[in-house]
Each structure stands twice: as C-alpha cells, then as structure tokens.
Write a structure and sequence with these properties.
11 helices, single chain, 663 residues, five-stranded antiparallel sheet, OmpA family protein, alpha+beta, cell outer membrane, membrane, TPR repeat, OmpA-like
Length: 663
C-alpha cells in the first residue's frame, strides 16, 4: 500500500470513529432526555416533561415511547395533539404498553369519538385481571360516560356557549367566575404565570390565585390583575361568591387541606384578610366550594369529611339566630352519588345547580340541576344540562348572572385557549313572535313587503336585533327573539321608516312558546298608493314566490328549487309586465366578502335557470346581501339552513333598467 492509500485509510477510519462517537453521544443524550422527561411525568408535572419528550422526537420522530408519554401529557391541555401523538405511537408499536388501549379510549372520548372510545375501553377491559376490581369498575364507568356523551351530543340543547375571550382566558386554567350585581366587575381564579409572582406548584402549574378585572365593552375586559392585599396566600386560592350586596367575598384556600373562607371589602375598595367561614363547615378534610343564599340563611358546601371513600358530597347548614352556622346536613343520596359532587349554586327560582362526576355524566364533571319538593321534603332527580353546556371533559362552577338571563361556566373544551376556560351561556329561551302588518283604521287591509326590525339589549346591555319582511300574499311575519325584553320595533318599506313601536316580550322558559302580535301602521296617501300598485293578487296567489334554499357553501340548485323556479317562470310568462329582483343570502359561517360572492352565485344560479326557461334577462336583476340580512339568528344548524336562501321580490317598472344590477 502506498503512502497516499495509507493516508486515505487512516482518514476513513478516523471519520468512522467520529461518527460512531457522535452517534453514541446522541444516543446518550436521547436517553438522558427520556429519563428527565419520565421523571417529571411520574410526578404528573406534564408541562415540564413535554419539552424533553419533544427534544427526543426532534432527534427521533418515530420514538414510540416519547410519542406515547407525550400524548398522555398533552391530555390535560391539548386534546387534539394528545390523540395525534397516541395514535402515532400505536401505529408504530401497538403493544408498547398494556395501558395503550386505555389512553386511546381517553383521548377519543374527550375528542368526541365515542364509538371508538368504547371499542378501546372494551379491548382494555379484557386485559384487566379479575382481582383488580377497582380498575374494572373505573373502565366500566368510562364506557358508560362515553355512551351518555354520545346520547347527549346527538340531542343538543338550544343554548349558545361562548368563550369569554383572551382578555381573561390564558393557556393555563381559569375557573370560578364571580360577577358583580352590575355585571361590570369580574373575579375569577387562574393558574397563569402571573399567579403568586410566577411561583410554580409541584405539578408544574402555577398556584391558583384570585384575579379581578372590569368590563370595558360588550365583550371586552381590562387586563386582569391579581387581587392586591392579603386575599391570596402562598398556596392555592379560589374565588367562590360575592354576597351581602357585593361587600363580602366567599373564597377557597388550601390551608388545612382546603377550607371555605370569607373576606370583607374595605373602605378603599380592597379586600381584607380572609377568615374561616365557620368551624361547623371547615374540618380537617377537604372543603372545596360553597354558596350562600341571597337571604343569607342557608349555605350549601362541598366536603369530603363525611364520605367513606373520600369523595366530595354536598351538605347544607342553616344560620342560627345569633349569626353562627348550625350543624351540616347531607342533601342525601338523590344528589350525592358515590362520585364527587361539587360547586353547588342555588338560583332565584330554587333550582340547585351543581357539578358531579356521577349520575349520567358525559365524562368528568358535568353540570346538573335539581328541584326541591317542599311537600315530599326531598330533592328531585338531578337533570343533566346536556350538550353543549356539558362536554366529555370537566365542566364546573356554573353560575347564573344576577338577573338569570345567562350563565358563567368553567370548562375544558376543544377550541379554547388551553386548559379550563371561562364561558358564558345564553340561558333564557327564545320565543316565536308571529302576526300580520295591517293598515291603521282598516284591519282588512294588509301591508306586504314591510321590514320589521326588533331592536333590544341583553341583560349586560349588549345590543340584539332580529328582522323579517311581511309576506307578499298574507302580510304575515315571523321572528324568533330572545324573550324577557322590551323591543323597539322599526317598520320600514323600501328603506323608508314608516314608524317605530314598542313591544314587550315576556320571559319564556320553554322551547315551544308562540306569541301573536299584529302591528298597525298609519300610512300617507302616496305610500298607500304605492303599496296598492305593487301588491300581488291575494285571491289568485299568482305572484306568490317561495324562497329556494342551498346546502352549506353551495350554490347548486336542488330538485325542489327547480320545481319552484319552474312555477315562477310560468307566473312570469303569464304576466309579461312582471319584473323581479333575485336576492341571494347566506349564513354567517365565512367572511363578509366571501359570503357576498356566495350570495351572488346563488342569485345568479336562479337567474340563469329562468333565462334558460325563456324569461328575458331584462326582466330580472340580481343582488347579493351575503350574511347581512338573516331571516333568523344564526344560532343553530336549522336557522343557518333558513338563511342559506335566494328570495324573489316583485319590482315596479321603474325599478329595473337594462344591464343594471341592484346594489
């Protein structure tokens, strides 16, 4: 071997040695990162564990163990990522861990894949040893949770759940909302980085502290600030309730394994040092939450003190004449199950709301409601508030606003900011208001084409508005409005306001109430003449043209739409002087600009079809209103379908010009 060959051989050997050492160092580094991650994982400090698992996965994306444990870690604050990691681990090594099916079931359950969750739980159930009775019972309960959730999600309640927004909610847990009687001052509990100066608890989360904020707009709040003074301790603290005309605050502190405390507002507006609410309530065990009735005579609270298995149960105490609290009394087995019951709240109508992991929960804590039967002297069977108020994960701290028109809720659900967030729930039911628009002084003369706009405000003074147009053949209208409000009803014709009237809609607590209301309008002679010229022939119904409807994000004509367009073509052929406006509408799913285009496409689809049927293009104009003129509020799938429509309006001769579109 010559010298050059020997040199190349030595270099190659050296490079191989360097690569071997680098690979060995990389492997050692990966093992070290896994050990560190697993150390945090075993302490349930998942936030601290995840960066190390992610470092392992950066070096080795197919490391099934890192994917598996990271997936379990993400369950607490990123449901969708948790499922993604767990399924990737499962695809790489299905038999990686005997608990794999269990965790896949948990991830599927909270991600609303209930059938798949049940399958995984049942597969896991077969692997549990007979002597492990506790584990078998747990998995059987999880299967029941999934079945309950599947049923509730398939039958959602007509309520609107809305995230309180990024002014209050963070990537950490926010819960226990407490609103003042004027709706403008909010106390809540957070584990954000600002809690107790950024000090972290053993689980890697920050200690719970009480924060405060003030409303600045309809849906906006000031930047929350930790409540100053002595209200927050070095441990966990949580807001519970404002009472005695907002002069006192009920709160939780983790001292003594968890106690219920109270604080009084000082002259300068700050809160005084917390004191124990009563030694009849607080014990050496865990007291988690409480509620004092408005008259101050009764307190409901959650405690583990009297439970045989350590779960939370709800008790009540009465205030004595001397101001002290009496002996606790259990609410009984109808309310208290063998699982945890927590966060009691009694509404003004006597309904007890509480959170429970038992009864027919969808998973974790659900919110339940129960009524007390004063004759039988017992609580009625708790009712699950259902979806979308409840989810497959924890839903707690349900509190009604002072007038009962909406509620606050703490929940960990898909689409939130991280862990638990605070949400609002529209509580009062809607009512259908129906009637006719008539001429004042002659109840036989109807007014078609009149736009009715119902303007009102919610309990927190946010504006609400609903509209309809009286029908061409009958002058009838129908609007679905939030009840319990006084509305200013504006009646307009062709953009001209005829008059404004007041109409009070009483509070409605069911889903089927219809209120009849006819509106009588005083007309000027010129307006009356214009309406008379435009009105269709009510006797023959020749000018009656029904709306046509579309699928989501589509402008294809349905078979039933073609039938209606065929009928319209026949009417127009029989009435050669009849001109129409074809007006496209959408629901509110997309942006304004996108919906304007979609509405125009829907109007054009009808226009093109009628041209194809021999109707002159000069007799028709098209216009898109996008989402700006909903027939009904976009609050449900059924309502959105009613808004995805094209309508047909009869035009006078001078309202249409060749080649000009109505804007």
């Amino acid at each position: 071997m010559n010298n050059l060959a020997k040199s190349f051989s030595r270099v190659s050997l050296l490079l191989a040695l360097v690569c071997l050492l680098a690979a060995s160092a990389s492997a050692q580094s990966t093992r070290k990162q896994m050990r560190t991650a697993n150390k945090f994982f075993k302490k349930e400090n998942y936030r601290a564990a995840l960066p190390y698992y992610d470092q392992v996965l950066t070096a080795d994306p197919n490391n099934a163990k890192a994917l598996y444990f990271a997936g379990i870690s993400y369950l607490t604050f990123d449901k969708e990522k948790s499922a993604d990691y767990l399924y990737r681990a499962y695809e790489l090594k299905p038999n990686l861990d005997r608990e794999m099916e269990y965790w896949l079931g948990r991830a599927d359950h909270i991600n609303y894949r209930f059938d798949s969750a049940i399958d995984h739980f049942q597969n896991y159930q077969k692997t549990i040893k007979e002597r492990n009775v506790e584990r078998k019972e747990e998995v059987a309960q999880l299967i029941q949770y999934a079945k309950n959730a599947k049923r509730e999600v398939a039958n959602p309640k007509d309520v609107f759940v809305k995230n309180l927004g990024g002014d209050v909610n963070t990537a950490f847990s926010e819960h226990s909302p407490v609103i003042s009687s004027d709706y403008n001052y909010l106390l809540f509990t957070s584990r954000s980085e600002e809690a107790t100066g950024g000090k972290a608890a053993e689980d890697g989360e920050y200690y719970e502290d009480i924060f405060e904020t003030t409303r600045t707009g309809e849906d906006s709040w000031e930047k929350p600030r930790i409540v100053p003074g002595a209200l927050n301790s070095a441990g966990h603290d949580a807001s519970i309730q404002l009472f005695d005309n907002d002069t006192k605050l009920l709160l939780y502190q983790s001292t003594n394994n968890g106690d219920i405390m109270f604080s009084e507002r000082q002259a300068d507006g700050s809160w005084g040092a917390p004191k124990s609410i009563s030694d009849k309530v607080n014990t050496r065990d865990f007291e988690s939450d409480a509620y004092i009735t408005k008259d101050g005579t009764t307190m409901f609270f959650s405690t583990s003190h009297y439970s045989e298995n350590g779960d939370l149960d709800i008790y009540m105490v009465q205030r004595n004449n001397n101001g002290t609290w009496g002996n606790p009394k259990s609410l009984g087995r109808t309310i208290n199950s063998r699982f945890d019951e927590d966060s009691p709240y009694l509404s003004a109508d006597g309904t007890l709301y509480f959170a429970s992991r038992g009864h027919n929960s969808m998973g974790g804590y659900d919110i339940f409601a129960a009524k007390y039967d004063s004759v039988a002297r017992r609580w009625g069977r708790p009712e699950n508030l259902g979806s979308p108020i409840n989810t497959p994960d924890d839903d707690t701290y349900y509190r009604l606003a002072p007038d009962g028109s909406y509620a606050y809720l703490s929940s960990y659900r898909i689409g939130g900011y991280g862990e638990k967030d605070i949400y609002t729930i529209n509580y009062i039911k809607n009512a259908d208001v129906k009637g006719r628009v008539l001429v004042q002084g002659d109840s036989t003369l109807t007014l078609p084409g009149v736009e009715l706009t119902f303007n009102g405000v919610q309990a927190d003074n946010r504006p609400i508005s609903y509209r309809d147009v009286s029908k061409p053949d009958s002058a009838t209208y129908s609007v679905n409005v939030l009840s319990g409000r006084n509305y200013q009803v504006q009646l307009s014709l062709d953009g001209e306001v005829l008059e404004t009237q007041e109409f009070e809609v009483p509070v409605v607590l069911d889903d089927t109430t219809t209120i009849r209301k006819d509106f009588f309008v005083t007309l000027e002679d010129s307006t009356a003449a214009r309406i008379a010229r435009r009105a269709p022939d009510a006797a023959t119904g020749e000018f009656k043209m029904e709306n046509i409807y579309f699928a989501t994000d589509k402008y294809d004509l349905r078979p039933e739409s073609m039938e209606e367009l065929d009928r319209i073509a026949e009417i127009m052929k029989a009435n050669p002087n009849l001109n129409i406006s074809i007006e496209g509408h959408t629901d509110s799913r997309a942006s304004d600009s996108y919906n304007m285009t979609l509405g125009q496409n829907r109007a054009d689809a009808a226009f093109d079809y009628l041209v194809g049927k021999g109707i002159s293009a000069k007799r028709m104009v098209t216009v898109s209103y996008g989402e700006s003129r909903p027939a009904v509020p976009n609050t449900s799938a059924d309502n959105m379908q009613l808004n995805r429509r094209t309508i047909f309006r009869v035009l006078q001769r001078d309202e249409i010009q060749q080649g000009e579109e109505v804007q």
